[in-house]
Amino acid sequence: MNQHLRSDPIPFIDVASQRRRLGVSLDAAVKRVLDHCQFVNGPEVAALEAQLAAYCGAKHVIGCASGTDAILMVMMAKNVGPGDAVLCPSFTFIATASPVARTGATPVYVDVDEATFNMSPESLKRGIATARKAGLKPVAVIPVDLFGQPADHDAIAEIARDEGLFVLDDAAQGFGASYKGRKLGTIGLATATSFFPAKPLGCFGDGGAIFTDDDELAATLRSIRVHGQGVDKYDNVRLGLTGRLDTMQAAILIEKLTIFDDEIAARNKVAERYARGLSNVVTVPRLGPGNSSVWAQYTIRLPKGTERDGFAAALKAQGVPTAIYYGKSMHQQTAYKQYPVADGGLPGCESLSQDVISLPMHPYLTEADQERIIAAVRGALST
Ligand SMILES: *Cc1c(COP(=O)(O)O)cnc(C)c1O
């Protein structure tokens, strides 16, 4: 099933193998929805929310239309807007900060630790001071669990507490991972995740969820999800969205959740094999103390002086796809470069953007394919 000829390209992410593994159970789940016809807010949505809550230990789970909406809905529920500053790492996917900007608030960029790719607590402190000097009111911090590894949550929580900020964890890439024995979804005021197909727990379209233990916030989020509804459907008490998770996607996610832990274990085996095969030629990712990862990406750093485009082309010629996450940090993006940067700048983000490259990573990567990838990396670096 996963046999590739030497010349066949290896998939970067293999959604098809998982589809084959789940087979008829996925077909049956989709058919149940087709038969009951409750395509919006059908019973599978509440069932999935309950299962996700049990999975990570959060009190409330609110399914929504995407990871981006998950972040936006929390910003809206907390009335974040013009004059407010929200601290975000700059080395992340654009959707960490785009919902902040959308509310009229100001994203303030924070540097990352080069060893873990995650938010630097020291830079966060400087960023809060930078925001105040600029006349903004710091209200929130969005740590990101980048590439599947939890951020330095205790240090960030302590700064947030001292400074009166709420924490929204962006676990779009990290859901399923643990921080000091706690599953992501239970850290901070709320957690946002994404079920985009390429994420570790992905659906077959767009989807997301918000996790929180706060009853009032959960009720507000449920209202925002449906046009800001009040006690009944046509009573609108606040601004809202059409922010629901489709029933069909919830039905698919219920099936995928049954194999999620097994897939996480398989991803960890793949990561271990990469580390064994590559740690003496490139910088391999390192987990911080108390962290487990779901390896949304396996991102290495190339040795100084390696020409990255040439390296990627050499791998491609061997049938090994790669991707650059992220060649530009947010503060280097056209629509986002006007926002303030924490004092001290973002040297971590800028050096990572120069030398990172991500290798194929998914639970169905065979040992044989992985040997090919490792050989291709070693070969490209020795020429
Ligand atoms: C994917 C992602 C998002 C957004 O999720 P969507 O479901 O694509 O809207 C947000 N933050 C990070 C870090 C992501 O990787």
Question: What's the SSE blueprint?
Answer:
Elements lengths: L14 H22 L6 H14 L3 E5 L2 H11 L6 E6 L8 H5 L3 E5 L10 H13 L3 E5 L11 H11 L2 E5 L7 E2 L2 E2 L6 E5 L13 E5 L2 H11 L21 H11 L2 H19 L19 E4 L6 H10 L29 H9 E4 L7 H16 L1
Parallel strand pairs: 2-3, 2-4, 4-5, 5-8
Antiparallel strand pairs: 1-9, 6-7, 8-9, 10-11
Helix pairs in contact: 1-8, 2-8, 3-7, 5-6, 9-12
Describe the overall structure.
By secondary structure, the protein is an alpha/beta fold. It has a single domain (1-383), classed as 3-Layer(aba) Sandwich (Aspartate Aminotransferase, domain 2). Helix content is 40%, strand content 13%. It has 12 helices and 11 strands. Strands 1-9-8-5-4-2-3 form a 7-stranded mixed beta sheet, sandwiched between helices. Strand 6 (178-179) and strand 7 form a beta hairpin. Helix 1 (15-36) packs across helix 8 and helix 5 (121-133) packs parallel to helix 6. The radius of gyration is 21 Å and the shape is globular. It starts with 14 loop residues before the first helix and ends with a helix. The relative contact order is 0.18. The mean pLDDT is 96. Bound molecules: pyridoxal-5'-phosphate. Pyridoxal-5'-phosphate binds next to helix 3.
